[in-house]
Amino acid sequence: MENSILQVLISCMHQDAGELLSRTRVSGSGIVINQCDDNNNYNLGNTLIINTTERGLSKSRNMALRNATGDICLICDDDEILDNDYSEKIEQAYKENPSADVIAFQIQDAGKKYPNKKKRIRYIGALKLASWQLTFRRKSIIDNNIRFDETLGSGVSKAGGEENMFVYDCLKKGLKVIFVPVTIGRMIEGDSQWFHGYTPEYFYDRGIMTRKLMGSFWASLYAIYFLSFKYKSYHNDVGLMSATNRIFYGIFKN
After folding, report:
1. Helices and strands of the chain, counted as H and E runs
2. Do residues 151 and 89 lie in contact, with contact meaning Cβ atoms separated by under 8 Å?
3. CA-CA 20 to 30 A from 60: which of 67, 157, 162, 208?
4. Tell me, which fold does domain 6-187 have in CATH?
5. What φ, ψ does residue 231 adopt, rounded to 5°?
6. Residue 167: which residues within 8 A CB-CB, separation 6 or more?
């Protein structure tokens, strides 16, 4: 690990690369995939900027992965601020956990709670992970031909889930996924470019996504849990009956 390179992979839309890197405090190596109205590449310091007319969050993640050269990659969005010592924290975690292929970290966010100790991530735990927590050994991902599912994620689905499927695929290939209670940054409060609130379409897409992850039976059980657990978050936007109808229609539509 002495000569390892950490590379930050950022997905965004219609951003000024210089302002983005300054705001997120990315230092060292990075790749920015900026979905906009141009197609061109250029380097800004140690960061490769790729402007593309492609659309979709998973496509953005995969483009970053294809162009990545770092030993360890950190997934990042444009609505977070990294700690000044994020690189040292991540590299230290991999030194202390040499058998880990994927390590999830903490990002300070008002709506998210974390375990207070290191833990192994299995399938249920993978459902609770957000993309901006994830780091991985690039070689482990490339060697196992793991990619982000381009039928999931913003741009094709309102429910996201591409990061959960990514971790599921890692687990299916036998990779070791862990969580460490180490904070590497914080989220910026405000509207996300990728999540646009709870709508009937969100719950429909959520049903499709969870069925794809775990099959109809387990997706149905998880839907009951999700509808109950998230009720306070969505009930002002979508009623319980409507949310229930749409999520189960997504699960059983085919």
Report:
1. 9, 10
2. no
3. 208
4. Spore Coat Polysaccharide Biosynthesis Protein SpsA; Chain A (3.90.550)
5. -55, -45
6. 102, 121, 126, 129, 134, 177
In this prediction the pTM is 0.85
Cα–Cα dist 245/226, whole Å? 13
Give per-residue pLDDT as tens, 119-151.
999 998 998 898 889 999 999 999 999 999 888
pLDDT tens-digit map of 208-234: 888 888 889 998 998 999 999 889 989
The token pair that represents 86 in the structure block: 């994020």
- Phi then psi for residue 232, to 5 deg, are -65, -25
The residues spanned by each domain of the chain are 6-187, 200-252
Residue 172, pLDDT score: 95
pLDDT score of 233: 87
The token pair at 27 is 């230092």
pLDDT at position 1, please?
43
Strands (DSSP E) found in 78-202: 80-82, 102-108, 119-120, 134-137, 177-187
Q: Classify residue 56 as left (phi > 0), alpha (psi -120 to 50) or beta.
A: left
Collapse the DSSP code of 133 into the 3-class scheme (helix H, G, I; strand E, B; otherwise coil) and give the result: helix
| Range 9-48 burial, b when 16+ CB lie within 10 A, else e | bbbbbebebeebbebbebbebbbbbbbeeeeeeeeeeebb
Q: Count of CB atoms within 10 A of residue 136's CB?
A: 25
